[in-house]
Amino acid sequence: MMGGGNLETRSLLDDFRSFDKGGFFDLGHPLLNRIAESFVKAAGIGAIQAVSREAYFTAVESARADSSDPSEITPGGAKKHRFPDHIKGETNKKTLEALVKSTGKESLQWGLAAGIYSGLTYGLKEARGAHDWKNSAVAGAITGMALALTSEDTTHEQVMQCAITGAAISTAANLLAGIF
């Protein structure tokens, strides 16, 4: 039997509420904790984005398939409703596999971007003793380069464009954060 009233019961909702206070991870160092938490948060957002995009395109393709084929109209003038080809039959397994692969890739990309950026900004702040636009520019450039390298058939020009874009967006966000 347990003595005293020190038994603390926490719900999952309480854990989510305390996420910003202490976080889910304690990997022994604030840098590692920050990278892991950023990765997990952004990977979840990436997965949701990939699934919702796929659902949208499936709905659009379904609507186009229903409205574009005149042979789908019955003799009474009503429209036959049918599943799109990629939802029915054997292609369903292939579509599900493609969805899982694209969701995994997108989650990894979002998590990679957030983890690298968060880790770099934290590390640069600790190393330089200041959090300013310079840290944001360097972190954005390196993150942009890393993301460019995750795409297929990457050229040097694409890597440089992504580095410049990442630096510009990150610097602008840092500068605008002081205004708003």
UniProtKB/TrEMBL annotation:
Protein's UniProt keywords contain Transmembrane: yes
Keywords noted in UniProt: Membrane, Transmembrane, Transmembrane helix
Primary location recorded for the protein, binned into one broad class: membrane
KW Phosphoprotein (keyword) present: no
Membrane topology: Multi-pass membrane protein
Region (Disordered): 66-85
Pfam families: Tim17 (PF02466)
Localisation per UniProt entry: Membrane
GO CC annotation: chloroplast outer membrane
MF terms in GO: amino acid transmembrane transporter activity
Protein name as catalogued: Outer envelope pore protein 16-2, chloroplastic
Organism: Rubroshorea leprosula
